[in-house]
Write a structure and sequence with these properties.
The protein has about 350 residues and is α/β, with parallel strands linked by helices. It is about 45% helix and about 15% strand.
Amino acid sequence: MKYNSEIINKKLKKFINLSNSLATTHPAIVVICFHDFFRNLYISDPYIKKRFSKDPYKNILLVLNNCISLLGYGKNLGSYLTNKKKIFKEKKISTSELYGSLWQDRYDNNVLNSSNEFKKFLKRSKINLRNFKDKVILDLGCGSGRFSSELASFKAKKVYGVDSSVYGLQIAKKFAKEKKVNNLEFKHASVLNLPFKNEKFDYVFCKGVLHHTKNLKKGLEEFYRVMKKKGGGYLYLYGSGGIFWNSRKMMRKVMKKIPYKKAFDTLKILEMPAHRTIFLDSWYVEIEKHVSQKYLENWFKKKKLKFVKYKNPLSIELEYAQNYKFFKQIYGDGELRYFITKP
C-alpha cells in the first residue's frame, strides 16, 4: 500500500471538522472518538487486542473511517446541551491544575510508583544504577516526584526535585515520605529560572517538561547551565512533523470547547486506567511545543555536548517503528530522548 498524503489529510480534516461541530452539543461522542483515534496513532497499544490492520498507515485510515461514521450518526442524536454557552462555564484548567489532577488520580489508584518502569528503562539504556551513587542530582520539572524518589533510592548523595506546580509538589512530598526517602529535597521554582548556581549537579534528569514551558530555549540553557563539567543528564522532548504530532495539535484546538472534567469523566466511564493519562495531558496542557531532531542535535553540538539517542524502545514508544517505511510521514521526528555528557 502506497502512502497517499492527500487521502489521509482529507479524512483527517473531515474528522476534525465533524468533531468541532459536535464538541458543544455531543462532547462525550467527540471524546470517545478522539480517544480511539489517539491510541491508534501509536505503533502499539497494550489495550488494543486487535487492530483493523497490522500496517500503521492503513490502520489509521480505517480508524478515521470508523470515527467519521460514528460522528455522522452522532449528529442525529438528541442532546440536552442546546445552549452552547452552558458548556463554556467551566474555567480553563491551568497546566498546574491539569497535572495535579492526573497525578492525584494516579496516587489515589496506587499507580504513581514507577520503580520497575524506571529501572527497566535504565537497563535497556545500559545505564548502571551505580552511576548515581554519591551524586548530586536534579529532577528538572519533577511533577509528582515519582522519578525524584527513584533517583534518590539509587544511593545518591542528594536529589533536588524542582517544579512550579504546588499540586504536584504536595503529592511528591507525600510519596517520598511513604517511600522513606531522606536524601531528597523539593523546591517550588520555575524550570526557566532555577535557584541553583552554575554547574551544581552531577546529573540532570528532565523528562517531558521543557516543551510545556513558555521559553523552551531558556529551559535548555538552564538544563545546560546547572550541569557540572564531566556531568551528564537525560532529556526528553516532543519531536515534530507527521500525522502523529499534527493530529495532536488539531485535537487540542477542538478540546478547548470541552471542559476538562467532562472529558475526564467520559474516559473514566470507558474504564480508562489511571496511568493512561497521555490523552488528557495532550488535549488540555496550555503549551505544547515541538522540536525537530535537527534543531536539538545542532543545539547539543553548539554547546559541545556529547549525546546519544535512546535505543531499545518499547513497542509502545514511537521509535519502535523507526524502520517502518512511512515512519517520517506518520511520526515525523518521533520522540526525542537523549543521554547527555558535558565534557
